[in-house]
Amino acid sequence: MALVAALRSVFYGLLASTGLYALFIGLLTIPVLQDQVIYLNRVTLTWFQDVNIPEQWGFLRNQVTPFFLTTPDGESLHAWHILPLELYRQNQEALSTEPQGLALDVKKRLSFKLLRDDPSSLLVLYFHGAAGTLGSGWRPPSYRAMSVGAPHRIHTLAIDYRGFGSSSGYPSEKGLLTDAITLAEWAMKEAGIPPSRIVIFAQSIGTAVSLSLVHHMATQPKPVLFSGLVLVAPFADVESLTATYRIAGTVPLLDPVAKFPRLLAWLNTLIITKWPSKTKLADFIRQCEDMDQESPRYDVTIIHAEDDYDIPWSHSEKLFWHAANASMTHGITFDELEKEKIASRVNNDAGGWAVERRTRRGVIREEIMKYGLHDRIMSYPVVSLAVMRAFKTLV
């Protein structure tokens, strides 16, 4: 009898779990809940901390200037301008006399003038991942990693997208692209930094935002190409991500459903937010390859850790293939490219491996690290080195 009771308890437990999971899947068909799962923008991870006091995250007094940008559709985006350490040291006395906290007019701040008035200044536009704010997790350490290659001239500009942190509005695919364009336009027009001195850095969901940005800028009547693009822990598209993504690296989203391809395909038809990164990257590469010899060359680096439990590194493999295939007149199959990569890649043993593919109009790199997880890798030297390379001969 005890065995029967135990089996009955297990059966009811499994039945209840299945029912709850089915309810969870049903809720995901609601657009608002879909967006919350994708963006997790209400999970700030900086509760009870004032993001207008960056010194809480180890920055020196006024090394970071918080301010707001206004988008064309009227949203307010909270931003940080992070000064590189050596440039800060050279101007520490003057910077320390300015008021702390939110800059109501950032153009009056010395930090802005140091960026705008130096013809050798370089700028990283930083697009963070899902959840959190500008000050969450490994983001502050990664800001410091951006300028390691030239601590006297590499500035960083980061934003919280609409609906994140102190920014107004609610996130959407169209909205986040507008936010990215707003940041890029402000950097080029207000701060006066030409695209040849700008590198785009992005991680996780930020990689989708940045790929939409560079694709948008490159397909304008007067194409704009930035100095380089560094993508950390990217994903191929949302539909591919649903089959592999684990919330917080532990809770599988649609992994059980992925065992039933037809059911997964049907559920994917209900997904409104697409973020087709692999298509955007391929189209961007084709656009660049069709440009004349006088146009700037593109530079794309894809970085992923093998122990990333949130987004498997197989997504980077797909992105690299789509980029390489788009760069060739007759294309290349995934298997053909894998054979080429095995023959040409640089093996760094415990440091992972890297492969570089030079095309007619640019270069595409893939760097797979053994370690780094999903977020920690952002502060690693591999990222600092990728940013340095993306600035080409300017550093």
Describe this structure as you would to a colleague.
The protein is of the alpha/beta class. The chain has one domain (41-253, 274-394): Rossmann fold. It is 39% helix and 16% strand. It has helices spanning 2-27, 31-39, 85-90, 92-96, 110-116, 139-146, 173-190, 205-218, 238-242, 261-268, 277-289, 314-326, 334-344, 381-390; strands at residues 64-70, 76-82, 122-127, 154-159, 198-203, 228-232, 246-247, 251-252, 298-305, 346-347, 353-358, 362-369. The strands form 2 sheets. A 10-stranded mixed beta sheet has the order 1-2-4-3-5-6-9-12-11-10, sandwiched between helices. It has a two-stranded antiparallel ribbon with strand order 7-8. Helix 7 crosses helix 8, helix 8 (205-218) runs parallel beside helix 11 (277-289) and helix 11 (277-289) packs parallel to helix 12. The chain is globular. It starts with a helix and ends in a 5-residue tail after the last helix. The mean pLDDT is 91.
Summarize the structure.
With 395 residues, this protein is of the alpha/beta class.
Helix/strand layout:
Layout: H1 2-27, H2 31-39, E1 64-70, E2 76-82, H3 85-90, H4 92-96, H5 110-116, E3 122-127, H6 139-146, E4 154-159, H7 173-190, E5 198-203, H8 205-218, E6 228-232, H9 238-242, E7 246-247, E8 251-252, H10 261-268, H11 277-289, E9 298-305, H12 314-326, H13 334-344, E10 346-347, E11 353-358, E12 362-369, H14 381-390
Parallel strand pairs: 3-4, 3-5, 5-6, 6-9, 9-12
Antiparallel strand pairs: 1-2, 2-4, 7-8, 10-11, 11-12
